[in-house]
Amino acid sequence: MGISDRLLADAVLLLHGLFILFAVFGGLLVWRWPRLAWLHLPAAAWAGWVVSAGWICPLTPLENALRRSAGEAGYSGGFVEHYLLALIYPEGLTRPLQIALGLGVLLFNAALYARLLVLRRRRKATRTGAP
Predict the structure, then answer these.
(1) Residue 108: pLDDT above 80?
(2) Domain containing 7: what range?
(3) CA 118 to CA 29: how far, in whole Å?
(4) What is the pLDDT at residue 38?
(5) Count of structural domains, the chain
(6) Max CA-CA distance within the chain?
(7) Closest C-alpha among 131, 112, 90 to residue 29
């Protein structure tokens, strides 16, 4: 199974990375495609909760299992700690900082959605002539 499991593990890794990007920055896509909010809101909520609660996303154990099945070593911790820690988190990550980062994702997206709603209401009021 080696090579196919390795490819699957790499696919899970790519999916995981794309999910994180979508959870953090998907609110920007919603400005262009508003119906995407139905996917983005739960994704951002899940990501914010997982980070704030200190959980490990279920995609991490799946990737590790596939890597072990392919004869590779898995890794301990979560996706972010293994692949992105040096890029995203400063050295000396503390629990309060991790909670702040999770809340930051949620607040960033809440601000985007609030602005989007204000703009949509203004546009609708302009079209209907309402004050």
Answers:
(1) yes
(2) 2-128
(3) 17
(4) 95
(5) 1
(6) 66
(7) 112
